[in-house]
Specification:
alpha/beta, TIM Barrel, eight-stranded parallel sheet, about 15% strand, globular
Protein backbone atom coordinates (compact mmCIF):
# COMPACT_ATOMS: atom_id res chain seq x y z
CA UNK A 1 0.00 0.00 0.00
CA UNK A 2 1.07 3.56 -0.59
CA UNK A 3 1.75 6.11 2.04
CA UNK A 4 -0.59 9.11 2.09
CA UNK A 5 0.17 11.44 -0.80
CA UNK A 6 1.13 14.93 0.21
CA UNK A 7 -1.75 17.28 -0.73
CA UNK A 8 0.63 19.76 -2.31
CA UNK A 9 2.17 17.08 -4.50
CA UNK A 10 -1.32 15.81 -5.38
CA UNK A 11 -2.27 19.25 -6.65
CA UNK A 12 0.99 19.36 -8.61
CA UNK A 13 0.13 15.97 -10.16
CA UNK A 14 -3.21 17.23 -11.38
CA UNK A 15 -1.77 20.42 -12.88
CA UNK A 16 1.18 18.74 -14.57
CA UNK A 17 -0.69 15.73 -15.93
CA UNK A 18 -3.88 17.35 -17.06
CA UNK A 19 -2.98 20.98 -17.62
CA UNK A 20 -5.96 22.22 -15.63
CA UNK A 21 -8.47 20.14 -17.64
CA UNK A 22 -11.59 18.98 -15.86
CA UNK A 23 -10.75 15.72 -14.14
CA UNK A 24 -14.11 14.26 -15.11
CA UNK A 25 -13.16 14.31 -18.78
CA UNK A 26 -10.61 11.53 -18.42
CA UNK A 27 -12.99 8.75 -17.31
CA UNK A 28 -11.09 5.79 -15.80
CA UNK A 29 -7.77 7.50 -16.41
CA UNK A 30 -8.63 10.20 -13.88
CA UNK A 31 -6.32 11.18 -11.09
CA UNK A 32 -8.05 10.03 -7.89
CA UNK A 33 -8.86 12.89 -5.52
CA UNK A 34 -8.93 10.94 -2.26
CA UNK A 35 -6.68 12.31 0.46
CA UNK A 36 -5.07 8.88 0.70
CA UNK A 37 -4.94 6.63 -2.33
CA UNK A 38 -4.48 2.99 -1.34
CA UNK A 39 -3.35 0.44 -3.92
CA UNK A 40 -5.42 -2.73 -4.15
CA UNK A 41 -2.31 -4.92 -4.04
CA UNK A 42 -3.16 -7.08 -7.07
CA UNK A 43 -0.30 -5.66 -9.16
CA UNK A 44 3.28 -5.28 -7.95
CA UNK A 45 4.50 -2.06 -9.53
CA UNK A 46 8.05 -1.27 -10.59
CA UNK A 47 9.64 1.38 -12.78
CA UNK A 48 12.54 1.44 -15.22
CA UNK A 49 15.26 3.84 -14.17
CA UNK A 50 16.38 4.93 -17.64
CA UNK A 51 12.93 6.19 -18.65
CA UNK A 52 12.73 8.53 -15.63
CA UNK A 53 15.83 10.54 -16.49
CA UNK A 54 17.09 13.10 -15.61
CA UNK A 55 16.20 11.94 -12.08
CA UNK A 56 19.23 10.45 -10.38
CA UNK A 57 18.89 6.95 -8.94
CA UNK A 58 18.78 8.41 -5.42
CA UNK A 59 16.06 10.87 -6.42
CA UNK A 60 14.09 8.13 -8.11
CA UNK A 61 14.30 5.83 -5.08
CA UNK A 62 12.96 8.56 -2.83
CA UNK A 63 10.26 9.67 -5.25
CA UNK A 64 8.72 6.35 -6.17
CA UNK A 65 8.07 5.41 -2.54
CA UNK A 66 5.69 8.37 -2.22
CA UNK A 67 3.40 6.81 -4.86
CA UNK A 68 3.51 3.19 -3.73
CA UNK A 69 6.30 1.85 -5.95
CA UNK A 70 9.10 -0.09 -4.28
CA UNK A 71 11.05 -1.68 -7.15
CA UNK A 72 13.25 -0.52 -10.02
CA UNK A 73 14.18 -2.38 -13.21
CA UNK A 74 17.40 -2.58 -15.18
CA UNK A 75 19.93 -1.89 -12.46
CA UNK A 76 23.29 -3.69 -12.38
CA UNK A 77 25.57 -4.75 -9.53
CA UNK A 78 27.37 -1.41 -9.34
CA UNK A 79 24.18 0.36 -8.23
CA UNK A 80 22.47 -2.22 -6.02
CA UNK A 81 23.83 -0.58 -2.88
CA UNK A 82 21.93 2.58 -3.74
CA UNK A 83 18.71 0.57 -3.96
CA UNK A 84 19.40 -1.18 -0.68
CA UNK A 85 20.12 2.14 1.03
CA UNK A 86 16.57 3.21 0.18
CA UNK A 87 14.98 -0.21 0.74
CA UNK A 88 14.08 -0.50 -2.94
CA UNK A 89 14.00 -3.89 -4.69
CA UNK A 90 15.70 -4.59 -8.03
CA UNK A 91 12.86 -6.18 -9.98
CA UNK A 92 14.95 -6.83 -13.12
CA UNK A 93 18.74 -6.96 -12.97
CA UNK A 94 21.09 -6.30 -15.86
CA UNK A 95 24.83 -6.23 -16.37
CA UNK A 96 25.50 -9.58 -18.06
CA UNK A 97 24.11 -8.85 -21.52
CA UNK A 98 26.16 -7.47 -24.43
CA UNK A 99 23.40 -5.13 -25.54
CA UNK A 100 20.22 -5.61 -27.52
CA UNK A 101 21.78 -6.27 -30.91
CA UNK A 102 24.39 -8.85 -29.87
CA UNK A 103 22.66 -11.75 -28.18
CA UNK A 104 22.28 -15.49 -27.86
CA UNK A 105 21.14 -16.05 -31.44
CA UNK A 106 24.71 -15.72 -32.74
CA UNK A 107 27.16 -18.35 -31.53
CA UNK A 108 30.03 -15.89 -31.92
CA UNK A 109 28.82 -14.23 -28.70
CA UNK A 110 28.26 -17.40 -26.67
CA UNK A 111 31.65 -17.54 -24.96
CA UNK A 112 31.47 -13.94 -23.75
CA UNK A 113 27.83 -14.27 -22.74
CA UNK A 114 28.55 -17.46 -20.81
CA UNK A 115 31.40 -15.71 -19.00
CA UNK A 116 29.26 -12.67 -18.17
CA UNK A 117 26.23 -14.57 -16.95
CA UNK A 118 28.39 -16.99 -14.97
CA UNK A 119 29.79 -14.00 -13.09
CA UNK A 120 26.53 -12.10 -12.60
CA UNK A 121 24.05 -14.89 -11.76
CA UNK A 122 25.61 -15.62 -8.33
CA UNK A 123 25.73 -11.89 -7.59
CA UNK A 124 22.01 -11.55 -8.35
CA UNK A 125 21.19 -14.37 -5.94
CA UNK A 126 23.52 -13.09 -3.23
CA UNK A 127 21.86 -9.67 -3.40
CA UNK A 128 18.45 -11.26 -2.88
CA UNK A 129 17.17 -10.71 -6.41
CA UNK A 130 15.97 -13.24 -8.97
CA UNK A 131 15.39 -11.72 -12.43
CA UNK A 132 18.20 -11.17 -14.94
CA UNK A 133 17.56 -9.79 -18.41
CA UNK A 134 18.72 -11.31 -21.69
CA UNK A 135 18.30 -10.50 -25.38
CA UNK A 136 18.03 -12.62 -28.51
CA UNK A 137 20.12 -10.22 -30.56
CA UNK A 138 19.46 -8.94 -34.08
CA UNK A 139 18.87 -11.25 -37.02
CA UNK A 140 21.66 -10.00 -39.25
CA UNK A 141 20.26 -12.15 -42.03
CA UNK A 142 19.53 -15.17 -39.80
CA UNK A 143 16.33 -17.21 -40.15
CA UNK A 144 14.04 -17.91 -37.18
CA UNK A 145 14.87 -21.61 -36.83
CA UNK A 146 18.63 -21.03 -36.72
CA UNK A 147 18.09 -18.32 -34.16
CA UNK A 148 16.00 -20.63 -32.00
CA UNK A 149 18.61 -23.38 -32.14
CA UNK A 150 21.46 -21.01 -31.31
CA UNK A 151 19.58 -19.35 -28.43
CA UNK A 152 18.72 -22.74 -26.99
CA UNK A 153 22.38 -23.81 -27.12
CA UNK A 154 23.64 -20.58 -25.57
CA UNK A 155 21.06 -20.31 -22.81
CA UNK A 156 21.45 -23.94 -21.77
CA UNK A 157 25.12 -23.20 -21.09
CA UNK A 158 24.08 -20.93 -18.20
CA UNK A 159 20.78 -22.54 -17.27
CA UNK A 160 22.18 -24.98 -14.71
CA UNK A 161 23.83 -22.16 -12.80
CA UNK A 162 20.64 -20.09 -12.93
CA UNK A 163 18.63 -23.03 -11.58
CA UNK A 164 21.16 -23.64 -8.83
CA UNK A 165 20.92 -20.03 -7.65
CA UNK A 166 17.18 -19.58 -8.20
CA UNK A 167 17.71 -16.89 -10.84
CA UNK A 168 15.30 -16.52 -13.77
CA UNK A 169 16.80 -15.51 -17.11
CA UNK A 170 14.24 -13.29 -18.82
CA UNK A 171 14.49 -12.64 -22.56
CA UNK A 172 12.73 -9.45 -23.55
CA UNK A 173 10.21 -9.27 -26.36
CA UNK A 174 10.91 -6.06 -28.33
CA UNK A 175 9.31 -4.61 -31.44
CA UNK A 176 11.32 -4.62 -34.67
CA UNK A 177 9.05 -2.20 -36.55
CA UNK A 178 9.81 1.05 -34.73
CA UNK A 179 12.39 0.90 -31.96
CA UNK A 180 14.67 -2.10 -32.54
CA UNK A 181 14.96 -2.82 -36.23
CA UNK A 182 16.06 -6.39 -37.02
CA UNK A 183 15.62 -7.69 -33.45
CA UNK A 184 14.82 -11.41 -33.54
CA UNK A 185 12.65 -12.00 -30.44
CA UNK A 186 9.97 -9.67 -31.78
CA UNK A 187 6.94 -11.98 -31.64
CA UNK A 188 5.54 -13.79 -28.62
CA UNK A 189 5.19 -17.04 -30.61
CA UNK A 190 8.94 -17.14 -31.31
CA UNK A 191 9.77 -16.50 -27.66
CA UNK A 192 7.25 -19.08 -26.46
CA UNK A 193 8.75 -21.68 -28.76
CA UNK A 194 12.15 -20.95 -27.27
CA UNK A 195 10.72 -21.39 -23.76
CA UNK A 196 9.26 -24.75 -24.76
CA UNK A 197 12.58 -25.95 -26.17
CA UNK A 198 14.51 -24.86 -23.08
CA UNK A 199 11.89 -26.36 -20.77
CA UNK A 200 12.85 -24.69 -17.50
CA UNK A 201 11.03 -22.43 -15.03
CA UNK A 202 14.30 -20.47 -14.87
CA UNK A 203 13.90 -19.17 -18.40
CA UNK A 204 10.95 -16.92 -19.21
CA UNK A 205 9.96 -13.97 -21.36
CA UNK A 206 9.79 -10.33 -20.38
CA UNK A 207 6.51 -9.39 -22.06
CA UNK A 208 6.69 -5.71 -22.96
CA UNK A 209 3.12 -4.60 -23.66
CA UNK A 210 4.18 -1.51 -25.60
CA UNK A 211 6.48 -3.48 -27.90
CA UNK A 212 4.02 -6.30 -28.50
CA UNK A 213 1.20 -3.86 -29.23
CA UNK A 214 3.32 -2.52 -32.08
CA UNK A 215 4.39 -5.86 -33.53
CA UNK A 216 1.36 -8.09 -32.99
CA UNK A 217 -1.46 -6.66 -30.84
CA UNK A 218 -4.02 -9.09 -29.33
CA UNK A 219 -2.40 -8.49 -25.94
CA UNK A 220 -5.08 -9.84 -23.59
CA UNK A 221 -5.62 -13.10 -25.48
CA UNK A 222 -1.86 -13.67 -25.64
CA UNK A 223 -1.51 -13.17 -21.89
CA UNK A 224 -4.47 -15.42 -21.06
CA UNK A 225 -3.26 -18.23 -23.32
CA UNK A 226 0.47 -18.05 -22.58
CA UNK A 227 0.96 -16.41 -19.17
CA UNK A 228 3.01 -19.36 -17.91
CA UNK A 229 5.85 -18.27 -20.19
CA UNK A 230 5.83 -14.62 -19.07
CA UNK A 231 7.91 -13.77 -16.01
CA UNK A 232 7.79 -9.96 -16.08
CA UNK A 233 5.86 -7.15 -17.78
CA UNK A 234 6.62 -3.63 -19.00
CA UNK A 235 4.20 -0.82 -19.82
CA UNK A 236 4.26 2.32 -21.97
CA UNK A 237 1.76 4.24 -24.04
CA UNK A 238 1.58 3.71 -27.79
CA UNK A 239 2.19 5.62 -29.96
CA UNK A 240 5.00 7.67 -28.50
CA UNK A 241 6.04 5.52 -25.54
CA UNK A 242 4.74 8.18 -23.18
CA UNK A 243 2.19 8.35 -20.34
CA UNK A 244 -0.62 5.82 -20.00
CA UNK A 245 -3.21 8.47 -20.72
CA UNK A 246 -6.04 9.32 -23.13
CA UNK A 247 -3.58 10.16 -25.94
CA UNK A 248 -2.54 6.57 -26.63
CA UNK A 249 -4.28 3.48 -27.96
CA UNK A 250 -3.61 0.89 -25.24
CA UNK A 251 -6.32 0.64 -22.59
CA UNK A 252 -4.40 -0.75 -19.65
CA UNK A 253 -7.03 -1.65 -16.99
CA UNK A 254 -8.32 -4.84 -18.70
CA UNK A 255 -4.75 -5.86 -19.56
CA UNK A 256 -3.82 -5.57 -15.88
CA UNK A 257 -6.92 -7.57 -14.95
CA UNK A 258 -5.82 -10.35 -17.31
CA UNK A 259 -2.38 -10.35 -15.69
CA UNK A 260 -3.85 -10.44 -12.18
CA UNK A 261 -6.35 -13.16 -13.10
CA UNK A 262 -3.51 -15.33 -14.41
CA UNK A 263 -2.15 -15.56 -10.87
CA UNK A 264 0.98 -13.58 -11.72
CA UNK A 265 2.98 -12.67 -8.61
CA UNK A 266 5.90 -10.84 -10.24
CA UNK A 267 6.34 -7.21 -11.24
CA UNK A 268 4.74 -4.96 -13.80
CA UNK A 269 7.30 -2.21 -14.37
CA UNK A 270 6.49 1.09 -16.05
CA UNK A 271 8.89 1.92 -18.87
CA UNK A 272 7.28 4.96 -20.45
CA UNK A 273 9.08 8.26 -21.10
CA UNK A 274 7.09 11.00 -19.34
CA UNK A 275 6.41 14.20 -21.21
CA UNK A 276 5.61 15.80 -17.86
CA UNK A 277 8.34 17.64 -16.01
CA UNK A 278 7.20 15.93 -12.82
CA UNK A 279 8.29 12.36 -13.52
CA UNK A 280 6.93 11.04 -10.22
CA UNK A 281 3.53 12.58 -10.93
CA UNK A 282 3.45 10.78 -14.27
CA UNK A 283 4.40 7.52 -12.57
CA UNK A 284 1.66 8.01 -9.97
CA UNK A 285 -0.93 8.37 -12.73
CA UNK A 286 0.31 5.20 -14.44
CA UNK A 287 0.16 3.27 -11.18
CA UNK A 288 -3.44 4.35 -10.64
CA UNK A 289 -4.45 3.46 -14.21
CA UNK A 290 -3.00 -0.03 -13.66
CA UNK A 291 -4.40 -0.50 -10.14
CA UNK A 292 -7.08 -3.16 -10.67
Amino acid sequence: MTKPIDPGRRESFKKVLFGGAALGSLSSLDWKEEETFQLKGNINHGVCAWSMRPLSLDELCVGIKTVGVHAIDLIGPDNWETLKKHDIHCSMCNGAELGIADGFNHTDFHDQLEKNYTEVIPLVAKAGYKNLIAFSGNRKGMDDETGLKNCEIGIKKILGLAEKHGVIIQMELLNSRVDHKDYMCDKSAWGIELCKRIGSENFKLLFDIYHMQIDEGDIIRTIRNNHQYFGHYHTAGNPGRNELDENQEIYYPPIMKAIAESGFQGYVSHEFIPKSEDKIAALAQAVQVCDV
